[in-house]
Amino acid sequence: MNRLVKNIVKFVVLVFIQVAILNNIQISGFLNPYMYILFILLLPFETPNWILLVLSFFLGLSVDVFSNTLGMHASACVFMAYLRPYILNYLSVRDGYEQGTTPSIKHYGFAWFFKYCMILVIAHHGFLFFIEVFSFTNLSETLIRIIFSTFFTLTLLITSQYVLFKK
């Protein structure tokens, strides 16, 4: 199966999982898992920035349409996609990234993948939750939501790496 078909299937499956299952998990409003961002995280290193931004917009818009959230996920995904090249450059391995690989535990190890995911998931969740509240009045509550949701999302992302992409 070529790379384009794999990415289309990954896009559809992650949006379906998010909309059908994960959007229904909310523990006291503090724990909201967002696994659909795995699509952005796992795009190949060679993906041009403009394609990354367009795909991220459509990914977020797809979740917005089914969640009735009026562009919040689209804007958070575009923000995350905008930061991704800078984070990859910051976390760059000594010899650079191998051609044809994707950012994953399989190729770059747990420590690298965890740092990469943690930075981008915090950026996504921070942007999303502050856009949702659109105020700094309940800053402590918003920060707690970011921390708990980031922890749960990271757990899902790393577990998915071990389950789906075994060596």
TrEMBL record:
InterPro entries: Cell_shape_determining_MreD. It is found in: Cell membrane. The chain crosses the membrane at residues 7-27, 33-58, 70-88, 108-131, 143-164. It is a multi-pass membrane protein. This is Rod shape-determining protein MreD. The keyword Transmembrane helix applies. GO terms for cellular component: plasma membrane. The keyword Methyltransferase does not apply. Keywords: Cell membrane, Cell shape, Membrane, Transmembrane, Transmembrane helix. It comes from Labilibaculum antarcticum. GO terms for biological process: regulation of cell shape. Belongs to the MreD family.
